[in-house]
């Protein structure tokens, strides 16, 4: 099943996502030029370190773009409601459309989203049933990339051997200290914020509760852990193969759990 493209027209979201892309580009361009390539050429690090950095960077930006353009689970205008599940659907009081329980109306996007977790301005999209797994991957790889960048910044000054700096006239070396200070500052800010967000997301999956449900405190039977954590994670990622939970270059296959299953276990 192909994934539909979902594009949100929101200037605020564009600015937030543009800031994230700027930070990614900054570190992807300057960190290799200042640290990775010079130390690799002088034999201080192996090619594996360079490969791992670009690997994390690629997976980070791939999950970012896929999460931002993926359909989070937008409901069609005239959904077909299975006869056996009609009692588990409800009427949205904002768009006057029928929706399955645990769906919510996003005022910024203007429609209901299945199992909506929250609207994230940093990806300019809602986080719902169909793209939650990509958002989790984005948080995961952003943490790894930020932590890796901070380690490289630290090792460059306190562990690696000094560079010969044969190309001292290059821009990146004339402004090396400023560039790395900016990189370290952004890395600390992003790592701190994303780590807290990622922890919150993991706890929500463990308890099978969305962020909206936690804030509204209206689903007591949902807030209790009713399923094994392997099952809740498999439903989010659309596969029981745990290795595929880390791959953003694939299509999610829903496990087709009935919408009312979580509330009527």
Automatic annotation (TrEMBL):
Palmitoyltransferase DHHC domain segment(s): 89-216
Keywords annotated in UniProt: Acyltransferase, Membrane, Transferase, Transmembrane, Transmembrane helix
Pfam families documented for this protein: DHHC (PF01529)
Catalytic activity: L-cysteinyl-[protein] + hexadecanoyl-CoA = S-hexadecanoyl-L-cysteinyl-[protein] + CoA
Domain comment as written in the entry: The DHHC domain is required for palmitoyltransferase activity.
Family assignment from sequence similarity: Belongs to the DHHC palmitoyltransferase family.
Annotated protein name in UniProt: Palmitoyltransferase
Lineage: Eukaryota, Metazoa, Chordata, Craniata, Vertebrata
């Amino acid at each position: 099943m192909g994934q539909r493209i979902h594009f949100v027209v929101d200037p605020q979201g564009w600015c937030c996502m543009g800031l994230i892309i700027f930070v990614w580009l900054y570190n992807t361009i300057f960190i290799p030029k200042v640290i990775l390539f010079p130390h690799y050429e002088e034999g201080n690090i192996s090619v594996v370190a360079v490969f791992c950095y670009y690997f994390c960077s690629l997976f980070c930006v791939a999950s970012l773009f896929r999460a931002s353009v993926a359909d989070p689970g937008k409901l069609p205008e005239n959904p077909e409601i299975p006869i056996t599940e009609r009692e588990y659907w409800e009427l949205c009081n904002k768009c006057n459309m029928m929706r399955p329980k645990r769906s919510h109306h996003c005022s910024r996007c203007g429609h209901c989203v299945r199992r909506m977790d929250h609207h994230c301005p940093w990806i300019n999209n809602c986080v719902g049933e169909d793209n939650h797994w990509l958002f989790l991957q984005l948080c995961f790889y952003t943490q790894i990339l930020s932590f890796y960048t901070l380690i490289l910044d630290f090792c460059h000054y306190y562990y690696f051997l000094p560079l010969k700096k044969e190309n001292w006239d290059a821009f990146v070396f004339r402004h090396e200290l400023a560039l790395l200070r900016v990189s370290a500052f952004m890395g600390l800010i992003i790592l701190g914020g994303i780590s807290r967000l990622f922890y919150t997301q993991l706890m929500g999956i463990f308890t099978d509760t969305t962020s909206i449900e936690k804030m509204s405190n209206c689903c007591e039977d949902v807030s209790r852990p009713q399923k094994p954590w392997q099952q809740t994670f498999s439903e989010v990622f659309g596969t029981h193969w745990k290795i595929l939970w880390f791959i953003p270059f694939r299509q999610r296959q829903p496990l087709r759990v009935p919408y009312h299953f979580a509330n009527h276990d």
